Amino acid sequence: MPKKVIYIAGLGLIGSSLALAIKRGQPDYEILAYNRSQESRDIALKEGMVHAVTDDFAAFAPLADVIILALPIQQTLDFLEVLSQLELKDKVLITDAGSTKAQIVAEAEACLQDRPVRFVGGHPMAGSHKSGAIAADVTLFENAYYIFSPSSLTQPGTIEEMKEVLVGLKARFIELEAGEHDLVTSQISHFPHILASSLMEQAGHYRKDHPMTQHFAAGGFRDMTRIAESEPGMWTSILLTNRAAILERMEDFKNRLDQVAQLLQRGDEEAIWQFFNHGRELRKAMEIHKRAGVDSFYDIFINVPDEEDAILGILELLRGTSIVNIRINEENREDINGILQITFKNREDLEKSAKIVRENTKYQVFLD
Amino acid sequence: MPKKVIYIAGLGLIGSSLALAIKRGQPDYEILAYNRSQESRDIALKEGMVHAVTDDFAAFAPLADVIILALPIQQTLDFLEVLSQLELKDKVLITDAGSTKAQIVAEAEACLQDRPVRFVGGHPMAGSHKSGAIAADVTLFENAYYIFSPSSLTQPGTIEEMKEVLVGLKARFIELEAGEHDLVTSQISHFPHILASSLMEQAGHYRKDHPMTQHFAAGGFRDMTRIAESEPGMWTSILLTNRAAILERMEDFKNRLDQVAQLLQRGDEEAIWQFFNHGRELRKAMEIHKRAGVDSFYDIFINVPDEEDAILGILELLRGTSIVNIRINEENREDINGILQITFKNREDLEKSAKIVRENTKYQVFLD
C-alpha cells in the first residue's frame, strides 16, 4: 500500500504510544510529531519513535496524509480551528483522541466543512498512571476499545483507512455516534468520577468531627475513591465538554438515592434486600467479569501468610499456567490480610492450579 | 491466670475464626459453641476448634465466663433477650460482633440492666468473601481494628479482661462509643455500599437504551461497584440498624452533588478543577495509603507482557524481598493491559527492586 506521512500532534502517553504502535503495523510510514515541550520531543526523536519533531504545529501539517490530534480536549478544539486556516494535502485524514466526542466532532464539522479534508472522531480507551513520551508503550492499546465517531466529513472508506493506519495498535475498533459515545461514557466513567471525588470530599469533611473516619476506611472505601486521585485537569475538561449527559445522570442518581432513602425511612426490609440483591445480580452479569479474550473470571483464593516469597512459592508451583490477574486484599468487604487472588483464563487452569496448591501447601484454598 | 469457659454463639467466618484465635492466645481456655446448622458444628468439632457444640443456645450459656455473640445483627438482638431469661454465671462477660453498635448496646442495656452481668459491644473489622467454619482463619483479625463500645454494663477492667481473652487475635483494639462507631461506619462503609449498588442499578438500567454501557465499563467503574456484590442480607440489617446516620449522609451527599451540578451548569472551570484537586489531595492524605505496620505504600509499576510466567520471572528476581501487595490493572483510569504493580514495605526495597528489574529485564519500570 502507498507509504503515508502521519502527523501526530501531542507526544503524551497516547500520542507517543500511537507513534510506536503505528510504526509496528506500518513500518514504511513516515511519522512526524508536534509537541509543545522539548522533553518529550527529544525522547521521541532519540528513541526513534518519530522521524521528525516540531514545536510549531502549523509547520508539518501541510506534509501530512493523516493528522492525529492527541491533545487535551481544549487544545484539540483550538487546533481544529488552526487546521482550517492551513493549506493541507487534498483529502487529508484528520482524527483526534479526546475523551469526549460530540463537541470535538461538531467543532471539526464547523471549522472544516468547506475544506477538502476528511474527519472522523477517535477515542482510544486506554490510559495509565504515567504520562509523557517517557511512558510510551507499544502495547498500550492492545485489546482496548478504540472508538470511531463519524462526522459529516467522514466519507465511505474513511474509517477503514484509519483502521489500516492503526492496525499495529491491535485494538478493538468500534464505530459509535459521538452523542451516544458521550452518553455511555457519562454513565460508566464521567459521573462515577464525580461520585468518587464527592465521597472523598464528604469523608474528608466528616473526619473533622469524627476523626476515626481516617482510620477505619477499609477496602470498599478504598475501591470507591481510587479514581478520585486522577489528574484534575483532564477531568475538568471532560466534564465541561459533556455537561448535559453528566447533569442528567446526576439528577437520575439523586432520584435513586431518594428512593433508597424512602425504603430506609419506612424500614422496608424486603425492598432494601431486593435493592442490594438486584445490584449484586446486575454486577455479576456485567462484562466487568470479562476480559479481552476471556469469557469470565476463574478465580482462586489462597490464604497466604505474610512471609517473604510466599507468592513466589505459589507461582513456582503454577509455573507454565497463564495468569490473567493476581492481587491481595481486593474483593473484600473490609480489610483482611493475606488473601491472594489469582485469576486464570479457564476452568481447567483454575482446577488444576487449585489441586496443585492444595497438594503442595498447607494454605487454605477457595474457589469461586 | 484462671482458666475460662468461652461460649461462642455462631460458627460463621467470624465465630469460628474467633475460636481459633482465642485458642492460640489462651490454649487453656475451654471453648464451647452454638450453631444452628449442623455443618459448621461438625467442622468446628472435627477440626478441634471447639471442645463442645450445641444447637440449643440456652444449653451452654450458664456454663460460660465469657459469651460472644457472633451472629447476624437481628439474631444478636434476639439472643440478648434470651440471655436475660437465663441463669448465668455471676459477672459473666457478654459481648457481640455486630457491624452496627448503638442498637445492640441499647438492647443489651435494656435486657440485662437488672442482671449481674457485664456487657461491652464489639466489632472486629475483618471480613472475607467466604463464610462458615470451613473458612475459619486464625489470622483473620491480625492488625485489623477491633472496636469495643462500652455500655452501662461495662465495668472498670471489663475491656481489659476482653483484650486478655482476645489476645490471640493480634488485633488493634480500640474503644469507641457506640453512637460514634455508627456515625463513622455510616460514612466509610454503610453509605458507600448504597452508592455502589445505586451506581450499578443506574448503569444496569441505562444499558437498556445504551447497550455499549455494558462493554465500556472500565477500571474505575469496576472499582466503584465491586462492593455491590456483597451479601444483601447482612447489608440490609446494617442499614436497618443505622438508619439515622445513613440517611443524614445521603442527604449531605445529595447536597454535594447539587453543588457540583451548579459548577457544571455555569461552566466554572476553576471551581471544578478545585473540586477534583481537593478530592485528590484528600485521598492522598488519607490512611488509605497506609497498611498495618506500613507507613505508606512504596509502589513499583512494571509493564509486563501477557506471557506465561512473566510475573514469576519478576518475583524470582526479587526473591527475598518482602512484598506488601501485587496486582495487575488496578489504579488506572481506564483498562490497560499488563501493568504489574508491586508494593513494598519501604523505600529501600522499592529502589533495590527497581534496579534489579531494570538491570535484568527489558520491561518498562516506573516508580511512584
From TrEMBL, chains A, B:
<dbReference type="InterPro" id="IPR036291">
    <property type="entry name" value="NAD(P)-bd_dom_sf"/>
</dbReference>
<dbReference type="Pfam" id="PF02153">
    <property type="entry name" value="PDH_N"/>
</dbReference>
<dbReference type="InterPro" id="IPR008927">
    <property type="entry name" value="6-PGluconate_DH-like_C_sf"/>
</dbReference>
<protein>
    <submittedName>
        <fullName>Prephenate dehydrogenase</fullName>
    </submittedName>
</protein>
<keyword id="KW-0560">Oxidoreductase</keyword>
<comment type="similarity">
    <text>Belongs to the prephenate/arogenate dehydrogenase family.</text>
</comment>
<feature type="domain" description="Prephenate/arogenate dehydrogenase">
    <location>
        <begin position="3"/>
        <end position="294"/>
    </location>
</feature>
<comment type="pathway">
    <text>Amino-acid biosynthesis.</text>
</comment>
<dbReference type="InterPro" id="IPR046826">
    <property type="entry name" value="PDH_N"/>
</dbReference>
<dbReference type="Pfam" id="PF20463">
    <property type="entry name" value="PDH_C"/>
</dbReference>
<dbReference type="InterPro" id="IPR003099">
    <property type="entry name" value="Prephen_DH"/>
</dbReference>
<dbReference type="InterPro" id="IPR046825">
    <property type="entry name" value="PDH_C"/>
</dbReference>
<dbReference type="InterPro" id="IPR050812">
    <property type="entry name" value="Preph/Arog_dehydrog"/>
</dbReference>
